Amino acid sequence: MIVKISTSSLDHGRVYEYLIRFVLGGAATVVTGIISNRFGPFIGGLFLALPAIFCASATLIEEHEARRKHRAGLHGQRRGQQAAALDAAGAAVGSIGMLAFAIGFSLLAERNATAAFVTALAAWCMVSIGTWWLWRHRGTTLRPGRTEKPGQLSRGPFPRIG
C-alpha cells in the first residue's frame, strides 16, 4: 500500500462541519494557553496534545459513512461506526509517534533546539511509520470467529472502509 494524500473527502464535507472542527481546535488551544499560564509550560504541554479535533472528526466520519450508505439504499450505521473506529486506531498510532517526538525533543532541547527538533521529527516519523507497519501487518485479528488463511496477513479488527 502506498500512502498518498487525497483531497476527495473535502468534497463531502459541509461548511458547519469544518466550523465545528475549527471552533473545537481553537477552544483547545485557548484552554491549553490558560492552563499553561496558570500552571506553567510543563503542565500546559500535557494538555497541548489534547485531541480536540478527534471527537468532532469521529462523529463526522461516522455521519459521512452512514449518509453515503443510506444514499446507496443501505443501512450504514454499523459501517459508520467501523469507519470511526478505524480513525480512532489511526489516532492511537499517531499519538505513539507524538510521544516519541516529545521524548526526543525534551531530551535535547536544552543543548540545541534545532538539533532537538530535527531529531524529534525523525523519531516521530520512524515511530509512526513503524507502529503503523506493525499494526497493519500483525498476524492476528481481534474479531472472534475469523480465521486467516496461511500466509494471509490480517488487516486488523475492522473491515476495509472504502
Structure description:
The chain has 162 residues and is mainly α. 68% of the residues lie in helices and 0% in strands. It contains five helices and no strands. The longest helix is centred in the middle third of the chain and has 32 residues, at 77-108.
The profile of the biggest β sheet is: none
Radius of gyration of CA atoms, rounded to a whole number: 19 Å
* Overall mean pLDDT: 76
**Strand portion, in percent?**
under 5%
Q: Segments where pLDDT lies below 50 for 5+ residues?
A: 147-159
Global geometry: globular
**How many helical elements?**
5
Helix-strand string: HHHHH
> From the structure provided, what is the oligomeric state, counting identical versus distinct chains?
single chain
| Helical residue percent band | 55-70%
Q: Strand tally, please? A: 0
* SSE-based structural type: mainly alpha
Distance N to C terminus? 14 Å
Write the layout of secondary structure elements.
Layout: H1 15-39, H2 41-48, H3 52-71, H4 77-108, H5 113-137
Helix pairs in contact: 1-2, 1-3, 3-4, 4-5
Features of this protein?
0% strand, mainly alpha
Summed up:
Helix content is 68%, strand content 0%.
